[in-house]
Amino acid sequence: MARFVKNTQNLPMKYMFEVTMHAVELHVPYKVQVICVIKRGSRRLETTRDCGVASGEPIADFQDEKMTMMTTVYKDKATKSFQERVVSIIKHYFKLY
After folding, report:
1. Is 9 left (phi over 0), alpha (psi -120 to 50) or beta?
2. How many C-alpha atoms does 65 have within 13 Å on its Cβ side?
3. Range of the domain at 90
4. For the chain, how many structural domains are there in total?
5. For residues 14 and 62, what is the distance between their CA atoms, to the nearest angstrom?
6. N vs C: which end of the chain shows fewer Cβ within 10 Å?
């Protein structure tokens, strides 16, 4: 029979962070679609607005789009420090129209 033992050295702490996308300014010679992605571990958030930039219009306006993610961080009871982990990676993806 499998026995699961909780690790008493680590305290899980839940937290939520929210990112507000206002605008992205890019200077490119052709028209592209802009999508902003936030990743943490296997979780992924993407902007939902269809924003694009072109040679005469360098600003993609996301109109204060909010992206929210709930996640867990672990605190070591003995050392009172948090375990290091990559919190978020923000990337911009471009697609040609």
Report:
1. alpha
2. 17
3. 10-96
4. 1
5. 28
6. N
Question: In this structure, is residue 57 part of a structural domain?
Answer: yes
Cβ pair 67, 19 in contact under 8 A: yes
Low-confidence ranges of the chain (pLDDT < 70): 1-10, 84-97
Q: Is residue 3 part of a domain?
A: no
Q: Which DSSP letter does residue 82 get?
A: B
- 30 with 61: CB under 8 angstroms? no
Tens digits of residue pLDDT in 36-57: 888 877 788 888 888 888 888 8
Q: Is residue 24 part of a domain?
A: yes
Pairing assessment for the beta strands 32-40 and 51-53 based on DSSP bridges: antiparallel
Please report whether residue 37 resides in a domain. yes
